[in-house]
């Protein structure tokens, strides 16, 4: 789904991509940056927690060092580089989940510090559910901004995507 959204956003003039549209993160570009920032923060927690499976690396989570509490951290100001990094992280995540985890891993707990520095221990399946739900939430914001600019990004429902990929 990220690829679909990025393909639509890539067609926009930069002026619209970076325009403050009074959304939570301001612009489409800033919202996409936030999604990538959050994914990298969570992946760095898995890396530190011993769940990298030699798939996640420091390179996967680069760009968020010292930025765990900065929800507005800009990983990349250039859209093409942001898109390239998003696609790389998505490929790493698909491989990491598909090849790294066993079924028994999903019920184990991930111990981590949240953005306020508090320690937590949460089942991995819950963390992964949150990670993908967070992406969905903010992609919905991007979709709303696209519609406000007269652009229909197409169907973004998960069930549609699953059906499309099952054929």
Automatic annotation (TrEMBL):
Keywords: Metal-binding. The keyword NADP does not apply. A divalent metal cation binds at residues 34, 134, 138. GO terms for molecular function: metal ion binding. It holds the Pfam family DinB. SUPFAM superfamilies: DinB/YfiT-like putative metalloenzymes (SSF109854). Belongs to the DinB family. This is Damage-inducible protein DinB. It comes from Leptospira tipperaryensis. The lineage of its organism: Bacteria, Pseudomonadati, Spirochaetota, Spirochaetia, Leptospirales.
